[in-house]
Amino acid sequence: MTDVRAPEAIGDGDMESVESFRLRAREWLAASLRKGEPLGFRRTLSEDQELAFIERARELQRKIHDGGFAGICFPREYGGLGLTPAHLAAFNQESAGYEYPTILQVPTFSPCAAVLLEFGTEEQKLRHVPAMLRGDEIWMQFLSEPSGGSDVAGALTTAVRDGDEWVVNGSKIWTSGAYFSDYGLCLLRTNWDVPKHRGLSVFIIKIEQPGLELQRIEMVNGSREFCQEFMTDLRVPDSCRVGEVDDGWTIGIRWMFHERNAMGGGSIYVSGPPSHGGSRGATDPIFVLAQRTGRIADAVVRDRLGEAIAMRRVHTELSERIGAGMVAGAFPDTIAAVARLMTAMSEVRRHTIATEIAGPAIAGWDADDPATGLGLAYLNRQSSCIGGGTTEMARNNISERVLGMPREIVMDKNVPYRDVPKGPPSPR
Amino acid sequence: MEITLSADQELFRETTQRFLDDRSSIAAVRAFRYSPDGFERDYWRQGAELGWTSLVVPEELGGGSVSGHEVVDLTLVADAFGRRVAPGPLLPANAVAAALARSGSAQQQTEVLPGIIDGTIVPAWCVGAPTADGGTASGVTARADGDGVVLDGVQAPVESAVQADVLLVTCGMGDGVAQFLVAPDAPGVSITPLESLDLTRRYGRVELSGVRVPASTAVGVPGEAAADVERQLQLVLVMQLAESVGAAETVFDFTLEWAFDRYSFGRPLASYQEIKHRFADMKTWLEASHAIAAAAARSVQAEAADAAQTVSIAVAYVDEYVPELIQDCVQMHGGIGVTYEHDIHLYLRRATVNRVLHGTPADHRQRITTLQERVA
Known about the structure:
- The complex is a heterodimer of chains A (428) and B (376).
- Chain A is α+β, with helices and mostly antiparallel strands and 428 residues long.
- Helix content of chain A is 40%, strand content 13%.
- Among the domains of chain A are: 18-104 and 123-135, Butyryl-Coa Dehydrogenase, subunit A, domain 1; 264-402, Up-down Bundle (Butyryl-CoA Dehydrogenase, subunit A, domain 3), CATH 1.20.140.
- Chain A contains twelve helices and eight strands.
- In chain A, the strands form two sheets. In chain A, strands 1-4-5-8 form a four-stranded mixed beta sheet, with helices on one face.
- Chain B folds into three domains: 7-118, Butyryl-Coa Dehydrogenase, subunit A, domain 1, CATH 1.10.540; 123-217, Butyryl-CoA Dehydrogenase, subunit A, domain 2 (Beta Barrel), CATH 2.40.110; 226-375, Butyryl-CoA Dehydrogenase, subunit A, domain 3 (Up-down Bundle), CATH 1.20.140.10.
């Protein structure tokens, strides 16, 4: 497996030193980007605001690309810089406090670009990876289905071969922001007569085309960023197939790894200020909340605040340790699940603490209240334990793949997938 | 601990591990249960020869680090101590050595420091817990009296107080902080042993009643020792953290093995999803503890502006989760886990004393907030 190691440029005698790169990045960032919050997911914008937000993110990505700082660990032949994780870490530290196209990082660069780099044809890589790095292509994962989220290999959506094309029918769900995206990396069933994992294939699917209908889903916090796609006799050229027919799970395993790794903050394909966990030195929003609510003198608030600040920092340190340990070969790639679990543990606790510090303003607030949005964020708290692979799956992965404990008993091994018991069709 | 060590650090670590394997087996640790001292002088002198007491002392004063990163080197010793619940006054020896190297008088540096370095002098550090306002508490106060100083107060528990050849007493003096070297047999000093939770670490109560010491016993400028005390505190905490994480990893490893070997209802414990998920949580706590303890050591090493807060964050996390991890491992063992016969309590004892000495997680959470207000 080559993914977490630095690209081939390692050992290149001409490589710029990390310190020189850092200084250049510092200078360029100061001259080119605005100070501000990273452009992550903003869950309560109007549709117009959202589209403007995405346009801004694309512009920023283009700027970073033209400035020579996009794709730091991507190979040069696909538009990247071919530098090392140490260069990336230096850039990320320098980027703290700037407006940054964070929303384009996951899933476009990881897992989507990461999977293409590992399994795509030369033509696919040349066509899409540089376009992603320019901000021209935003990608989504067409992975979960209404029939089940964690059992990713249990995909029911089917592709049937028809000459040089495939005909796709079925539905994918929980794609965040598909409506503003360009492509989906899609896991489809291509064979029902073999066991579950042996009948899958991966395809690149253009989002805007006949046969693909998109519906937005309203979440508890009012966000309509998640989508469901309905594919009806959708035609996909065979040149958009990634990897071998029916061998999609070989890719799926690495895909899940890249996803977990991005969720845990350890991916070498993701750049910019940490989107969760927080960077060292940046003021913790819960601290700001405690100050603005005037409750910071309360000893219990100070205790919870200390815990919240600690969680955030520990999370950052753990992500860095795991990222560095994978690069050094000291940890197996499966360790990414540990960082993913920590992300959830930290987020869950911090949401709860923020709610406690905000107090009654969670129930009723006005626009300039420091607690604005926190109640809705609390309602959505479990998202951090669900999206990007549930924490239950992360715990299975840690115990089975990292600690080597026995696998769970499954009922769908060595049985043609059409004969595997399935529940009634999902209401969606 | 760091993921990768330099060749010199690896060698140093192995040397200490081999020595401890040889001299401090679990059976040997158990044998100290009723020993008043909790360690042997001879063992301590040999450990000192390996570098346990000299890392934080500069070369010109007879010390020297292994890698140029003396604080990180010291955590390697502490980690090895944690993995074997090893005996010996590692914490006070290094705290007092660092104090004397940093601010001791020439006389203290020639008469006391060399003995600490070679293990012939065992020091104790009489200090209270860190306070919510970012300082350090002390049960002792000092007042000037003619050309000397008079010390009054009580401090407990103090590690190795009964065994100590010299006491470093941290005390309040006016609005400031002062430190003095006091002989345990000086008039007015009384030291009583306490019942100690750890199997080898001994604690005592130090009572000072009108103890008169000459001004020359001051370590640093009386009233202006707060920065020295903070540095000593950070060193002790970084050692405690490394020790607790080392202990947790040992317990985690043997408990994992147990889960594979132990069968119930015809299958190993390790095959139950409930058990697997708890191990996944423990693995996450363990790696997170490693990460933040190492970050704290690096931060103290670099004397970073936020070192105090980083150390408090590490304590707030490690001392909260490590004892929970070990308790959960006790649970995995069932009845045998709460017997004296099983080794797990040796580690729980050490992790517990580390949790409550030099500030509990709750104390340090208060500190984190105070320190955050100062930078905000």
